[in-house]
Amino acid sequence: MSEGATTAYAAAGVDIAAGERAVELMKRHVARTRRPELVPDASGFSGLFRLDLAKYTAPVLATSTDGVGTKVMLAQELDRHDTIGIDLVAMVVDDLVVSGAEPLFLTDYIACGSVVPERIAEIVGGIAEGCCQAGCTLIGGETAEHPGAMGPDEYDLAGAGTGIVEADAILGPDRVRPGDVVVAMASSGPHSNGYSLIRRVVADAGLDLRAEVPELGGELGAVLLTPTRIYARDCLALAAAVEVHAFAHITGGGLAANLARSLPDTVDAVLDRATWTPDPVFGFIAEHGSISREDMEATFNMGVGMVAVVAEDAAERALAVLAERGVPSWVLGSVVPGSGRAVLTGDHR
């Protein structure tokens, strides 16, 4: 591009030099995620990944794409950008692993009103940390500057991931049967769902995001920005150790709706609220927003971020495996003959 064109582009609001500096700053983060299958591409136009087909009999690729929703607006308001990338990775890889797929690599896309290299590097640092937690490579990405379409401090991000699973090891509804046990894995908070409602509650109740809230154990904004727990490696370890029939990633729509997606239409999952106490943040949101239990459960994970449906005789071992990996878990309910529903009963402790 000629100097005149570069100057004209800058006048339109696009800073090419800032974009190049952002790329340099993020390189060290990306390097942390490298898997041995990564193939260098000197041009940088695409990411290359070599599949070791000798490891598989009938490999099936899985793919998932997602974003972080309006949680990014909270990060922008608080000017804290180092964990929102973890949320992005979690939303992608924890969907991939539901089928039993191991996440291999991820690409990201960041759109912003103005490229601030240090801020972009913070975001990518979080994405890299998430990839390290999930065991996948950040194979490539794109940062796009959209002056006029977005404010200077605004950004949004999305990601797409690819995983692999043996054809005869794909998990899902066809494996679930009466007598199976439903095991819950604790969430780290609201994860990345329901933030449009959370932001409305904060605004309508006049809450200060920077205020300390003793019952939540810290600053309100920091608690709400707690990154989404990444379960991918824990789920893979669980499936390798015990007979897992299905997983369900509990995202938008809540526990019952998401678990129902992993059930055949011949069974129900009966879940007992008395088996757990939701994190205080959910009670805080419900109280300050005057939100009913029905609406809370239809919006938030309420403390359950991932569910495993395991064979009846595998439940005790499943809990032990998850405990060894530091994942709080408990028996949430059981599978009975039915019509494909997940039904919550009782009251929380």
Automatic annotation (TrEMBL):
GO terms for biological process: 'de novo' IMP biosynthetic process; adenine biosynthetic process. Belongs to the AIR synthase family. Its EC number is 6.3.3.1. InterPro entries: PurM-like_C_dom, PurM-like_C_sf, PurM-like_N, PurM-like_N_sf, PurM_cligase. This is Phosphoribosylformylglycinamidine cyclo-ligase. It comes from the Bacteria. It catalyses: 2-formamido-N(1)-(5-O-phospho-beta-D-ribosyl)acetamidine + ATP = 5-amino-1-(5-phospho-beta-D-ribosyl)imidazole + ADP + phosphate + H(+). It comes from Thermobifida cellulosilytica TB100. The keyword ATP-binding applies. Keywords: ATP-binding, Cytoplasm, Ligase, Nucleotide-binding, Purine biosynthesis. The gene is purM. GO terms for cellular component: cytosol. Its main location: cytoplasm. Pathway: Purine metabolism; IMP biosynthesis via de novo pathway; 5-amino-1-(5-phospho-D-ribosyl)imidazole from N(2)-formyl-N(1)-(5-phospho-D-ribosyl)glycinamide: step 2/2. GO terms for molecular function: ATP binding; phosphoribosylamine-glycine ligase activity; phosphoribosylformylglycinamidine cyclo-ligase activity. It holds the Pfam family AIRS. Residues 61-165 form the PurM-like N-terminal domain. Residues 177-340 form the PurM-like C-terminal domain. It is found in: Cytoplasm. CDD domains: PurM.
